[in-house]
Specification:
The protein is of the alpha/beta class. It is built from nine helices and 15 strands. It binds NADP nicotinamide-adenine-dinucleotide phosphate.
Amino acid sequence: MTTAREIRLKSRPSGMCSHDNFELATVELRDPGPGEVQVQNLWMTVDPYMRGRMNDAQSYSAPFALGKVMDGGAIGQVVASNDPGFKTGDLVQSGFGWREGFTAPAKAVQKLDPRGLPPQAFLGAAGMPGLTAYVGLLKIAALKDGDVVFVSGGAGAVGSMVCQIAKAKGHKVIASAGGPEKVAFLKDIGVDHVIDYKAETDLAAAVLAGAPDGIDVYFDNVGGPHLEAALATARLFARFAICGMISIYNATEPPPGPRNLAQLIGKNIRMEGFIVSHHFDMMPAFLDDLAGWVREGKVTWKETVFEGIEKAPDAFLGLFKGENLGKMLVKLA
Ligand SMILES: NC(=O)c1ccc[n+]([C@@H]2O[C@H](COP(=O)([O-])OP(=O)(O)OC[C@H]3O[C@@H](n4cnc5c(N)ncnc54)[C@H](OP(=O)(O)O)[C@@H]3O)[C@@H](O)[C@H]2O)c1
């Protein structure tokens, strides 16, 4: 490769992000120097957390720099190597997403063993989102026998893995998602009670329709009214894994709720937030369990794919409009 196209952060959004915040640029790629590799990206991921990185605000991950390429997870193939550890054709994982290719020190990329899975699965079900579901359910919510699990954002990358891991472990699962296609998918993967939240006026009643005695675990991907409904329907000693609150990522004002937070006290609820990067030590155990569940037909996944680097902003913006079923991905080659 001699040139590569990339997406840069052109301006910081105020409220809902838009195409105006991104620009497409073409850069020259230098040949790899000693200890370097050149990689052609095959797939890149867009994830909700990147919205936070578009703000100029201190958070758990650094803000994207204005006028610079946005980075993120990617799977690529080595096209030239000047490092003895890599050869042309090697599949690699990197944090150099939002670009078609790059030249970088070999130590900045990791060789990918696809374990018989499609390589892009390592950006979704077998990657960060899958691990997030595993950590949130098993470690943060400390799932135990007999728990009734409620998950919001159930048809997304993380949520669909939460549903299936909980089902694989024998739990009753209530999941919410927006629209009939997502509802049908969730029923198809064995979710016991599915809520189309866009068609509901009383979310707590909708949860109780599937779990008349209440819920023991809430996996939050959405925040807002979903969190209030979970608090309202929680049983004694419920555990809440607070994973994400996508409903407020584009808000210009702090959210007003949850208004019923006092439920935590009387119900002895434990609510705990987490960031998956603090739990990467669980990746080997997760991949072993995942391999078993895939073999037994207990876990599957969907992808929504946009093609071409120029479509990466469409894919990203689509996350906030519910355009993805399963993992949102961009295919680059
Ligand atoms: N804590 C961590 O370490 C960690 C790691 C990964 C992800 N996360 C969080 O987990 C959540 C899910 O991430 P993901 O990668 O799996 O994304 P995703 O669920 O695959 O995609 C986002 C989905 O969010 C839903 N959504 C968008 N705006 C919404 C709104 N205003 N209200 C309700 N639902 C809305 C849409 O589904 P519908 O059509 O159903 O509305 C959309 O498809 C996000 O909050 C993300 O930030 C946290």
